[in-house]
Amino acid sequence: MKDNKKMELAQWASKYAKENGAKEVSVSVSDSKESEVEVRKQKIEKIQESIQSGLSLKLYVNGKYSTHSTNRLDKNDLEKFIKEAILGTNYLAEDQYRSLPDRHLCYDGTEKDLKLFDSRYDSIDPRQKIDLAMQVEAETTGMDERIISVSGSYNDGSYRSYLVLSNGVEGFKESTSYSVSASASINGGDSRPSDYHYKTARFWDQLSGEGVGKYAVERALRKIGAKTIKSGKMQMLIENRSVGRVLSSLLQPMYAYNIQQKRSFLDGKIGHKIASDLLSITDNPFIESGRNSRLYDRDGLAARKMTVIENGILQTYYIGDYYGKKLDMEPTSSSASNLIFEPGDKDLSALTKEMNEGILVTGFNGGNSNSATGDFSVGVEGFYVKKGEMLHPVSGMNISGNHKEIWNNLVAIGNDPLTDRGWQTPSMMFEGIGFSGL
Amino acid sequence: MNNEFSRREFIRTGSVSLAGMAILPSFLSLGCNRITEQSGLEEYYAHFNVDREMLQKVMAEALSRGGDYCDLYFEHSLSNNVGLQDKQVNSAGSNIDYGVGVRVLKGDQTGYAFSEEITLDAMKKVAKTAASIANENKKFPPINLQERVHPEFCKIKTSWEDVSIKQKIPYLQKLNDKVFSLDDKVAKVQVYLNDSSSYILFANSEGVVSFDYRPMVSFIAVCVMEKGDRREDFFASRSMRIGYEYINEELLDEIANEVVEGANKQFEAVKPKAGQMEVVLAAGGSGILLHEAMGHAFEADFNRKGTSIFSDKMGQKVGEDFVNIIDDGTNPNYRGTLNIDDEGILTQKTKMVENGVLTSYLHDRISAKHYNVAPTGNGRRESFRYAPIPRMRNTYMEAGPHSREDIISSVKDGIYVDTFTNGQVQIGAGDFTFYVKSGYLIENGKLTQPIKDVNLIGNGPEALRQISMVGNDLKIDCGTGTCGKGGQGVPVSMGLPTVKVTQLTVGGTNA
């Protein structure tokens, strides 16, 4: 529900900044509540609650630009803060590309219920939250004598923000989120493998912790006896929940900031084939209850549904307002929202059976990717698969290669998208991936 | 306008017409004079608008449900940034963060809440929330608060609050110009100068009240070079708990040369072959090995719960006799240095591995009580929004008996690594990684072709055992190391002498 005082504060700050020398202003006022319970051995390990607020400003002063934020929202404090910020901005160099986005590209204020907010948030009994965390841990009791420790956790949050641009754009967002999670640690002899699982929901009624603790323990147990195998080129099947890690390295060079700063290997590749025919990705900010759903982005640009990659061909970049102006390209969106993939027709287990020899990757460990060249090198863990059979867990290995090549080696996509995440990644299978081990 | 006008002067006049001195409003209307490095406890009380009696009342509320310990952590942080892109200093920013965190402990249980408003009512409200970790009804007499004075490991000459944006801008511009002047291939340069000043007031139910001033500066340059249709990038950074006096021409030269040489080297660099091989870690930033492979696994919360691979190894021989690993909060002006930790304990130099034997974990109050040892001053938090947990400070290995030359010449076929971007560890499995931005192949005892962009992976206890040579050239790195754990980031430093590890898996090419 809108808090008129916060909205008025944003409007006041925008007006005050303009009266004191800013040509244009973007103000965002936000507040949030969060709570967290962590349980171990059926005892509360930690309870934490927080309520916070903040105001952030983008100032456009005589062709110069700066950003400021504070959590002190008293108007007397803010008056000094804004005045000094404007005066300080004057020392910077002029930047002709800094201005608010064109009005016609911005959010028009039409409210549409994306079903992101649960009005029950404030009325949930804290005891129920503790019970959920307790249940998550309790269901693992007696599961296996090798369990060292299981933590069950409950988290929730409620967020509101108001955006006021001095060109007349006004926006309001509110959302809630709930999650339960478990992390398990197992005595595996020389090693103490661990794993986790979680479930999230926008609405309290849709949250269930059932199976979360058990699955975390099962995942940790199956890692016992992990081995490093010899280096070589093999197939790689990445489990749906880990695909995001590799995907983010493909998205980074699509951001206008990296393109303009010459740190993108995808510079000039719109309309070019950058992946196999199987890869089609749509960015859809309007999905009801979606993790990253929104009506406008942080610049105030109206959200739009767009095709990012179609049958392997790059269709768009992520272009925010400023770098769009610098590159002389129309803005699309400053960041990715919900990503939807064209699914395949097999699940993870069917895809595993199709593998001749390779590694089913279930987690990544460290590593990095160079967005300027596409080179990457990342630690992996998972299972060695031969002729469709999972033979044993593997650890202590890296994959290396270049994004310009590996996406063309994508040979299968799962029918198992993670529908409760922003990036609804399915499992993906690649050929000819370089693994480093013994 | 007078450039030499001090920030203090500016506050006193209260006149915005003299502004431009600092982009950041300093203390806003907190009803007090500015705190300086020389300020005492009474100034800190005044700054946060609290007194002893208020603190006592809040603590009584925090312990009213039977908690056995509580602390209050007041924090006011002011940070500024100035940025250069496309040859112009064209962006800047500031942030103010202000609030108090209340923590209640009952055994190893934690209740935590914070408030961004520092009034008696607001504090009592969050104290009540934190108190709910316990469930009895108790009355507490007022706690007698005594000031604990701590040493000062981060002396500075000029506070960042006395430095105007106008004074900072020329340094960014000069660094940009130097980088462009060093090589025709330079296509893009970004430079950032970030500084912050934090003021901390701490009080706990043991009767300790203390305060701290924490400065920080980071100077970062990124350079992209073009050669034909190839592009390569490199970055260099320096970060210390130090004042404005740190920034000078020599520092600019150092950073400029580092990014240009680094980016240039990338054009010649290859990927090594994949697989296990001998790895020589250069002195300095290679301390990331200690941080990821050992330091995290020595943090006592993981060991207390039995989830670290080192949980059953206390007192055991874990490395060669010449392996000595330290986590130190006392090194003057380093990024991980602290006068007191974030639970009011005097910081110290903690020997984690002494002559190859595991001698200490890194403790906060909870784990110290669990193990019945004295806390080591490793309880840290990102800000008042978080409860403290065991964290590293400056982590390094003491110098050993070997020379750098002997170490390199002892390797027939391996790699030498010197610049890193990031790392990670799995505490229980012990598998750690760190990403090598640049280094060299070692062929027949000599550094030959440059290498780039490879991830190294190993296992903590194994890598520790496999440290077979330690150089006599310890160097602590001054880069912008920030360590993430449990959703909290804290500044750290790391260091290493030249070290040989006999076997790590290198994420190279599969020819």
TrEMBL record, chain A:
InterPro entries: Metalloprtase-TldD/E_C, Metalloprtase-TldD/E_cen_dom, Metalloprtase-TldD/E_N, PmbA, TldD/PmbA_N, TldD/PmbA_sf. Residues 231-437 form the Metalloprotease TldD/E C-terminal domain. GO terms for cellular component: cytosol. GO terms for molecular function: metallopeptidase activity. One of its GO terms (biological process) is proteolysis. It comes from the Bacteria. Signal peptide: none annotated. Residues 122-223 form the Metalloprotease TldD/E central domain. Residues 26-86 form the Metalloprotease TldD/E N-terminal domain. Belongs to the peptidase U62 family. This is PmbA protein. It comes from Ancylomarina subtilis.
From TrEMBL, chain B:
Residues 70-134 form the Metalloprotease TldD/E N-terminal domain. Pfam families: PmbA_TldD_1st, PmbA_TldD_2nd, PmbA_TldD_3rd. InterPro entries: Metalloprtase-TldD/E_C, Metalloprtase-TldD/E_cen_dom, Metalloprtase-TldD/E_N, Peptidase_U62_metallo, TldD, TldD/PmbA_N, TldD/PmbA_sf. Keywords: Hydrolase, Metalloprotease, Protease. The keyword Hydrolase applies. The keyword Flavoprotein does not apply. Residues 160-265 form the Metalloprotease TldD/E central domain. Residues 275-508 form the Metalloprotease TldD/E C-terminal domain. One of its GO terms (molecular function) is metallopeptidase activity. One of its GO terms (biological process) is proteolysis. GO terms for cellular component: cytosol. PROSITE patterns: PROKAR_LIPOPROTEIN. Belongs to the peptidase U62 family. This is TldD protein.
